[in-house]
Design goal:
Layout: H1 3-13, H2 27-35, E1 36-37, E2 40-41, H3 45-57, H4 64-75, H5 80-84, H6 93-112, H7 115-121, H8 128-137, H9 143-156, H10 160-172, H11 178-188, H12 193-206, H13 213-224, H14 245-254
Antiparallel strand pairs: 1-2
Helix pairs in contact: 1-2, 1-3, 3-4, 3-6, 4-6, 4-8, 7-8, 8-10, 9-10, 10-12, 11-12, 12-13, 12-14, 13-14
Length: 255
């Protein structure tokens, strides 16, 4: 059975499959093996993305969080040869790598084409809004509009962990505007530790120069925290993959 035909079958199954299904019983798990694996995207990936966006936007689809997580992974997907080099000493390595890099670009562009759908999802009441915001933060070509939406979400959010997640996404999105830095700096003045740590991680991504003293103190606190990763448990995406203590140290050195 062809790769794209298999993917179409799995996409149809996603409309009704409960998120409790795991392993080979889960169409989402099986789909990952066809269009994304350990960071690598494939020829079929870009073709599947519009259907994934449609499924993620439908309130009747059970595992919308899982689908948005896959879209986030695709948005940051890579080329196997670009990451690992010419392990097999291929004579046509450069050509094969160029083909893979084109697929990476096509896959990311396909995800970015759903920006309006993701923004609409951020207006929902469930954690879908946070998972959609995570995808948006991975689309640098839409940084200005995305960060305006993220700042609005931060200002409206009252729950501590969710607000911390949104602060972290502002850093992940790469926006160094005064408006974003002001929102992040405001978190340093409060007593909420997880929000302070989230803003510190955001600053580590952004590396503003000069580094404010409040940010420096919060970064030092985050470096010393034994439970930094655990404090973000409960957000609808894998935050541990985005916590890089080396970035925290590098931000201090640069500032």
């Amino acid at each position: 059975m062809g790769l794209q035909k298999t993917s179409r079958i799995l996409l149809r199954r996603l409309r009704t499959a409960p998120p409790e299904l795991t392993g080979e019983q889960s169409p989402l798990w099986c789909l990952c093996g066809n269009i994304w694996h350990q960071g690598t995207v494939y020829e079929a990936t870009a073709y599947a993305v519009p259907f994934l966006i449609e499924l993620a936007a439908c309130p009747l689809v059970p595992d919308r969080l899982g689908i948005l997580g896959l879209l986030a992974a695709i948005a940051t997907g890579s080329s196997y040869r670009d990451v690992h080099g010419n392990l097999s000493n291929e004579a046509d390595f450069a050509e094969r790598r160029a083909v893979e890099l084109k697929r990476v670009e096509q896959a990311h562009t396909a995800v970015a084409s759903g920006v309006a759908a993701f923004v609409a999802m951020t207006r929902e009441e469930t954690d879908v809004r946070l998972a959609a915001a995570h995808v948006l933060a991975l689309l640098p070509e839409h940084c200005e509009g995305v960060c305006a939406r993220l700042r609005s979400m931060v200002n409206a959010e009252t729950e501590s962990l969710r607000r911390a997640g949104l602060l972290l996404l502002l850093g992940l999105a790469g926006d160094r505007s005064e408006a974003t830095l002001s929102v992040l700096t405001g978190a340093f003045s409060g007593n909420d530790l997880v929000q302070r740590h989230a803003a510190a991680l955001a600053f580590a991504y952004l590396k503003p120069d000069p580094l404010p003293n409040l940010a420096r103190a919060a970064i030092l606190d985050a470096i010393a925290a034994d439970d930094l990763e655990e404090s973000f448990e409960g957000l609808p995406w894998d935050v541990t993959a985005e916590i890089d203590r080396d970035k925290l140290h590098a931000c201090l050195a640069a500032g």
